[in-house]
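This entry is set out below.
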Amino acid sequence: MNKWIVAITVMLPTLIVIVDSAVVNVSLDHIRGSLSAGIDESTWTLTSYLASNAIIIPMTGWLSRLFGRKRYLIFSISLFTFSSFMCGSSWNLQSLVFFRILQGIGGGALQPISQAILLETFPPHQHGMAMAIFGIGIMFGPIIGPLMGGWITDNWSWHWIFYINVPIGFISILMALFFIIDPPYMERLKMKIDYWGLLFLIIGIGCLQVVLDKGQREDWFSSSFITWLGYISISSLIMFILVEFFAENPIVNLRTFKNLSFTSGNIIMFFIFFNLFSSVVLLPIYLQTLMGYTSFLAGLVLGPGGIVSMIAMPIAGKLVTKINPKAILAFGIAVASYSIYLMSQFNLQADFNTIVWPRVVMGVGMGFLFIPLTTLTLSDIRKEEMGNASAIFNLLRNLGGSFGVAIVTTMLTRRAQFHQVHLVERLTPFDRNFQLALPQISQMLQDRGFTPSSLNQGSLSLIYNQLIREASMLSFNDAFFILSIMLILTIPFVLLMKKGKTDASDSGIH
């Protein structure tokens, strides 16, 4: 089978799943209003999808062996397509949340299956190019998703962000039927089901995802709800690990972590997406809350970085066959870390070009680290274990993003409070800067028509509002700086990885 047809076949459904992960965010207000839901209630449409998605990803390799990979791929696309139609037809919030859970179950398997099929279909010396194709899809989704979701919601209705998946889903099913062929080792196997492992995995990952998604809003462990979910998640995951080591047919084969390159690659991937998702979340908040940007302008700032990544990835895919992938990976990490450091230098007077440039630099870094990282992590894995390894790799990537968003938003709030307290200490009549600023602000307000009796109160109010903005800006600087240091500290793990296969001895085409 032509490898490029196979690549298109597996990437088409994967792309709509990635787009769908981002498209709902911008339509949340419309969904909430249409279904008469509160703000906290409406966020369950996001949490339910993320939780079910996170649960199914690590099970993908096991489910592929249980049902046969092609059969399971077609089932997943069909479930995602059906649930997309039902999401668009939802009559209340409860029905939408239920169908979003089904959508997450259907969509969760598509990324690891696509990655595994690409790595098996392309020969080892072309793994870089295969991962470039996969990486372009990964990067393209978050760029087009919010833009497409906003346009569809404004011009049609929020229902169509789900309906649009249906025709693409049908095409994907037909292409999978005709163009995907299971190798002998991925055909259906009769095996004993690991019920305890399945139970602990569902509870552990599901509760963890809810904790990460709701933690900041509930003030973390000051909430009994979050505390209990945290205990349940940790206990279940510990039990899951113990059960999997003794299971005859484990849902997740943890012995894969004996491979040092695989273990190191997963650690690096976790922290890369920790940083990537964190910076992508922080930047729009900074632009819209402190700089007064509209959602569209904030999207324009994010866009160039994604476009540069898509250009850089095919170049990196070619280079990994000519240069030691470890050098390219270290270069990509260093560039990405530098880009986040540039963001830590933002201030309240930054212009558009100053803000866009670090995103362009990050696009170069992400393009040059994703391809060699995936190649180094997975190329040394046996084909029979590729589904399991790809599932773990994708799970760590998603968890890295979830942990990053949860921790960085908490960090932002806590550091803003810290800086506010320290700045307020200087907001006294005895401070020289305060003495100089007060008359100037009073004169400005007087020119605007403020009465003498309200001048003092208005001046103090303006000074305090500016202090709040400065405290928030300093908290963004702190968060970006910590992220840049965290990312650069992953470089030692690159040294632990093996170079991997680069020869063409095994074509891997089926």
